[in-house]
Every structure is written in structure tokens, then in C-alpha cells.
Amino acid sequence: MRIDASQLELKEKMISVKRVAKVVKGGKRFHFSALMCVGDGKGHVGVALGKAGEVPDAIQKAIEKAKRRLIRVPLRGTTIASPMVGRFGASRVVFRPAAPGTGLIAGGGVRIVLELAGVRDILAKCVGNTNSHNSVRATFDAFDKLNVWAQSRRLRRQATGAVAVVAAPVAATGVPASPAAPPAPPAPPTGPSAVEPAKP
Question: What does the pLDDT profile of the chain (200 residues) look like in tens digits?
């Protein structure tokens, strides 16, 4: 489901800006590419790449595209809900939830994305290619996996609740869940009446 960016207070941060060249017959044509990230710090974040002949135009394009690509990040307090690994190309990003007060242990573009997503305590490690574009895409791959994990967990809880509701009327009918144990044999009589009379 698409998230309406107009209902959120989004912040913008630049991950990288580079000059790219295209070789043509008459020489080289230079353009700029900007990788921008937007987020509200409350679990919504988006990232996009914009290209233009000038830096401000490239930044504006990237921001508009990022607002159309917002996703929701499952959070548990100030950290993520579960450990996760994101992959893209030769890049791999490993995320581990952390206790409050740990801080944001991450660097580069991954740190910017986590900040704007609202994560305050996490352990992150980039393995393999550390290119900013690949690392950011690997981060979003981990977010997508977290969303799938959160949805499957929610469905499991609903299924468990349905089973409990179905089992409740059966218990109300009085039918024992397991066979009743047989009654214990009566205890032998005790006292004066239990003593046999003496033979004459």
C-alpha cells in the first residue's frame, strides 16, 4: 500500500552526489546524480536517485522520487523488531537489535537511512562491497524482509487466537478434555466395628 507523503513530516538528507560524464562525438557532457533519503523518524523512509544537469535539480528530482517510494519499517521501541540480513549485488548488510542506550552503530549511507527511519539503537555491519548505492539498496532489502516477517508473525497470532476461540465453546459444554480417572477404591473400615468378634 502506498504511503501518502503529504500526511508526514519528512526530513531530507543527502547520501551522495557525483558528477557523471557521457562521451559524445564532440567531447564530454557532464551531469550530476544525487542519492537522497527522506523519512519522518517514526518508521517511514524512502530513498531515490535523481539525475540532472545541475546539482539542485538532481536533488529535487531525487526527493520527489523518494517521497513516492516510502516504506514502513517495523520497529520495536528504538530498535528493529528482529535480526535481519539484506543483500544487493555484492553488498551484504547485517542488522542486529540492540538494547536502549547502545546508539546507532553504522556508517555511510546505512546510518543516514536508519536515522531517518527512526532507529536509535542498532548494530549494523556492511560486508562485501561498500558502495553507497548497493549498501542502501541492501538496507531496503532487509526492511522488506522485516515487513514480511512482521506480517507472518501477525497472521500466526491471529490463527492462534482463532484456535483458542473455537476451543472455548467445547470446554463450556462440559465434555472432559481427557478421560476421567476411575474412582479410588473405598478405604478399609477402621475402629471397634471393624474388629471380628471373638469365637466362643
Answer: 678 787 888 999 999 999 999 899 889 999 999 999 999 988 899 999 999 999 999 999 999 999 999 999 888 888 998 899 999 999 999 999 999 999 999 988 999 999 999 999 999 999 999 899 999 999 999 999 998 888 888 888 888 776 655 555 545 555 555 555 566 666 666 655 545 555 54
Helix axes of 132-172 and 108-117: crossing angle, nearest 10 degrees: 40
* Residue at 197: amino acid letter: P
Quote the pTM value.
0.73
Q: What is the 3-state secondary structure (H, E, C) of the chain?
A: CCCCHHHCCCEEEEEEEEEEEEEECCEEEEEEEEEEEEECCCCEEEEEEEEECCHHHHHHHHHHHHHCCCEECCEECCEECCCEEEEECCEEEEEEECCCCCCEECCHHHHHHHHHHCCCCEEEEEEECCCHHHHHHHHHHHHHHHHHHHHHHHHHHHHHHHHHHHHHHHHHCCCCCCCCCCCCCCCCCCCHHHCCCCCC
* Cell numbers found for residue 191: 475402629
